[in-house]
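[Automated response] Your request has been received and processed.

Submitted sequence:
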Amino acid sequence: MNALNQAMGGLRIERQTDAVGVVQLAPLRDHRLSVHAGPPARLSCTSTHRYTRGDLTLLPAGFSGTWVEEEPATSIVVQLPPALLRRAAEDLGRDPDRTGLEPRHQFRDARIEHVAWALDAERRAGHPNGRLYTDSLGLALAVHLLGHYAVPGELRSGLSSQQLRRLTDYIEEHLDQNLTLPRLARVVEVSASHLKTQFRRSMGVPVHQYVIQRRVERARALLLKRQLAPSQVALEAGFSHQSHMARWMKRVLGVTPTSLVRGAPSRRGLSSRPA
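Generated structure:
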């Protein structure tokens, strides 16, 4: 077996050629994805398969097996450490302890193939784009694999009612401050990636969109009271400036602050109807 190997960030990419004969695969430490990259080649296991360029094989960590290469077979092999899949599972809102990959043989997936060729090109060029580029491709690949080839796993539920109440109360009390995702995640003691997934599952909207909606509603209420200048209303509602507030009010409510105030009756103009 001839292999050129480069490891970066736990992800390993290699181009390997299996000679004719029996191949015995010991239990894998990492998840292994291979893309056939050479001339057509036959492989025998329980039956005979003829692999052509772009055919994929996915073997999860722990997999072992034996087969016969009837012709030399060249492949691009991408090995993904379990830690990378755990990170992808967390980003998808899955329990990383209950999520795995199913073995798949001789299948096609244009997206996987594209990422594999890009990783191999980066390897052959000596990784000119650095570790961040390789890690980004590896994470994208892991997310795609879990989204399409995972053993069915239990999705995490959304935030508990207590967590949701604590978080929404905190948002209301601090709307005029910088509400970053890590800051909000600390309120309910989860990671930022978990909060993104769990909040959307609980509320039906992303957390940043919820914050914007609450700021728009507060700005609307303050403007209708006519007690503060629009510039002060913007700051009280958590917008960086008046134009920022106007842009989001137009997007969410379909009206500008000026048209909102013009269309509302003045408090001094209101009178009780006769009984």
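Summary generated for your ticket: Residues 8 and 131 are 6 Å apart (CA to CA). The longest strand covers residues 11-18.
If you did not submit this request, please reply to this message.
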